[in-house]
Recover the amino acids of this structure.
């Protein structure tokens, strides 16, 4: 039995023949920002904007997402929306029934879940309802801190993976939240097993869909890093925009950062370039296009790409600025296109033995980098700010290091990754695979490159943290839009 109210509502919506709903909600439960955020984690977009905003979301909706348009007058919608949508009335007391509604409508989601699970056979008055709420609050305080609910995690994950059209953004959020809450605990290894099982399904999915993702439209959102600049140009060309790239920020690390950022933000999950090496994926961000193989990775190259893109879109050179590591926000009066790159989190990742190490280093980095202050200042300066990364990371297991002749010609890409090698000649690639047939189901061969899609690495170490492959923890990354505070 589903223990969470919002998951239960989501499952009900999935039973309908449509994925678009016009919903009248007079008790305003669905208008709560925390409720909207929780629905999004289950692949449901609840939209409460103007009719024009709702129209845009309707036109640009994705197949795997359920769209709930909150409305007071269903007759205000155009006929084509009404034909494709289902009209519903939503009342919280249909799900959390028997309680005094005004006493529960603003309750914390965790408490509402308890009331939802506690079915009543008789209705309670206000006093009786408050007594039960007080009892639940006391129990929650006494039981804190509680262990991560693995049963609930597995239920949520399986619910998504068994769907006809898997919403990988939701899967990413479920797994990332689980990782951030179990690192260092006895539950972590079990959680990783489930993450790797999800990754097996993900590999089948991207094998069939990745080319389509690379060619996707950037109008609603960039689905992949190479489309970020086109998205910014299409939607915000005349605005002051700042793009922050935090090298190597996995979505689970973003979970640690989220609450330090302004509340008014939109969180999306997009794809890194595959394979997830910096030379390709960060190049794709700043090129705004498919990366090229003979590119020399470095700040000077990125700055040149950033400036070339915006000059070609009509911006003046003095309006464009790029900063790498050393951030100076005092000289931005004429700047309208700003890029900031934070590099040292990736260095901390490469120096980590495991995720337990990286968790502590990430928490330390969040404070020392003053990233939240940087974003607040950018807001004050009128910038609409976007935060993303070039790739995530994975706690990998060592297969073995390259030996003798296997090392010959492997430095073509200049990658630091231990999950990716690229030979200078095709015959060297073929020879390596012929000599190591046991890797066939664990790697992808692409031209002269070989990279892991499982959790293995070209390393002698039992455990390490790295990137460069196609695992969902490396590929599914955050793209966060923060308003300029207006």
């Amino acid at each position: 039995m589903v223990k969470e109210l919002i998951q239960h509502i989501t499952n009900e919506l999935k039973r309908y023949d449509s994925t678009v709903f016009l919903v009248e909600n007079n008790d305003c439960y669905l208008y709560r920002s925390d409720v909207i955020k929780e629905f999004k984690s289950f692949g449901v977009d609840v939209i409460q904007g103007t009719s024009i905003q709702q129209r845009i979301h309707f036109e640009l909706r994705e197949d795997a997402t359920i769209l709930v348009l909150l409305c007071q007058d269903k007759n205000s919608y155009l006929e084509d929306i009404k034909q494709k949508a289902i009209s519903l009335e939503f009342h919280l007391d249909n799900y959390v029934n028997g309680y005094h509604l005004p006493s529960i409508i603003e309750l914390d989601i965790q408490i509402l879940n308890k009331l939802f699970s506690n079915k009543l056979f008789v209705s309670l008055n206000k006093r009786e309802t408050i007594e039960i709420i007080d009892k639940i609050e006391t129990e929650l305080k006494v039981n804190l801190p509680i262990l991560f609910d693995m049963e609930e995690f597995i239920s949520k994950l399986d619910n998504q993976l068994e769907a006809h059209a898997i919403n990988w953004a939701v899967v990413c959020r479920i797994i990332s939240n689980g990782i951030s809450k179990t690192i260092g605990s006895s539950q972590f290894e079990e959680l990783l097993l489930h993450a790797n099982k999800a990754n097996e399904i993900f590999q089948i999915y991207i094998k069939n869909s990745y080319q389509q993702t690379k060619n996707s439209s950037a109008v609603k959102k960039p689905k992949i890093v190479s489309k970020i600049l086109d998205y910014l140009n299409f939607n915000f060309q005349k605005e002051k925009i700042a793009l922050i790239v935090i090298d190597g920020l996995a979505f689970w690390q973003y979970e640690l950062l989220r609450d330090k950022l302004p509340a008014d933000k939109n969180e999306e999950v997009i794809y890194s370039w595959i394979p997830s090496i910096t030379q390709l994926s960060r190049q794709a961000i700043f090129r705004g296009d498919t990366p090229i193989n003979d590119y020399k990775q470095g700040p000077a190259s990125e700055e040149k790409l950033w400036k070339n893109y915006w000059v070609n879109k009509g911006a003046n050179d003095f309006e464009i600025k790029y900063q790498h590591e050393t951030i100076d926000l005092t000289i931005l009066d004429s700047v309208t296109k700003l890029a900031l790159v934070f590099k040292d989190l990736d260095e901390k990742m490469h120096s980590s033995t495991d995720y337990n190490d990286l968790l502590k280093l990430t928490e330390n980095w969040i404070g020392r980098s003053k990233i939240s202050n940087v974003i607040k200042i950018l807001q004050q300066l009128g910038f609409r700010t976007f935060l993303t990364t070039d790739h995530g990371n994975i706690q990998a297991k060592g297969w073995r290091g390259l030996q003798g002749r296997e090392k010959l010609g492997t430095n073509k890409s200049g990658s630091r990754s231990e999950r990716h090698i690229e030979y200078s000649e095709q015959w060297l690639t073929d020879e390596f695979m012929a000599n190591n047939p046991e890797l066939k189901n664990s790697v992808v061969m692409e031209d002269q490159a070989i990279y892991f899609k499982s959790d293995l690495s070209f390393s002698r170490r039992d455990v390490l943290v790295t990137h460069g492959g196609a695992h969902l923890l490396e590929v599914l990354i955050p793209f966060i839009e923060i308003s300029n505070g207006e």
Remarks:
- Residues 215-486 form a domain with the Alkaline Phosphatase, subunit A fold (CATH 3.40.720).
- The mean pLDDT is 91.
- The longest helix spans residues 188-214.
- The CA atoms of residues 329 and 374 lie 8 Å apart.
